[in-house]
Amino acid sequence: MKKIVLLSLVFGMAGCATTANFFDIHPTPVSNSGYWTGQFDRLVGTLILESDGTGVICQDHLGTARVMSV
């Protein structure tokens, strides 16, 4: 059991390390650009996706709004 937990931790941390160069990531053009909105339990989110692959997501959870670039 300890080996499984250790391996899970190692693979989980390796996944985090692969995107360490965030500024080297470039957007990919998409065909499904536009306004997208959805709801999960008490979380509401709206995504504005541009055709060049960039955009903004706004999430509201219990009155706390967060805006992030994508």
UniProtKB/TrEMBL annotation:
Transmembrane segments: none
Keywords associated with the record: Signal
Residue ranges that the Swiss-Prot or TrEMBL entry lists as coiled coil: none
The UniProt record lists the keyword Signal: yes
Keyword Signal: yes
InterPro entries (alphabetical): J517_1871_lipoprot
Signal peptide region: 1-19
Protein name from the UniProt record: Lipoprotein
